[in-house]
Write a structure and sequence with these properties.
By secondary structure, this protein is α/β, with parallel strands linked by helices. The protein has five helices and five strands. It has a five-stranded parallel β-sheet with strand order 2-1-3-4-5, with helices on both faces.
């Protein structure tokens, strides 16, 4: 049975996005909750991968890590200034349409 996507929100993601996802029943772990504030982007990816979580970020450094071939469980990138409602809406579509295996090593842009 396909496994639902679980997200790992890095420190650039607004708390309102996390709240909105949780209100909709989505499993989200924040960098703060994981005690990873200030960690390198590579360490965030490693932590997320170890738990099978897809990184949610607005930091384009993660795109460079992907391009460099760093293994990850998936990245969802929202450019800076993307409205919170648009981020939540896009993440919900991803959560409903894709599963964890389909996201592995992939990037989705919002």
């Amino acid at each position: 049975m396909p496994q639902k996507i679980k997200f790992y929100a890095d420190e650039h993601v607004a708390k309102a996005v996390v709240r909105g996802l949780r209100q909709r029943g989505v499993d989200v772990l924040t960098a703060s909750e994981a005690r990873m504030l200030g960690a390198s982007d590579a360490n965030h990816l490693k932590r997320a991968r170890s738990e099978g979580r897809v990184i949610l970020t607005q930091d384009d450094d993660f795109l460079r890590l992907h391009a460099a071939g760093v293994d990850h469980s998936g990245i969802v990138y929202a450019p800076q200034q993307t409205p919170v409602t648009d981020i939540i809406r896009g993440l919900m579509v991803i959560h409903q349409v894709l599963d964890a295996d389909e996201m592995h090593g992939q990037i989705e842009f919002l």
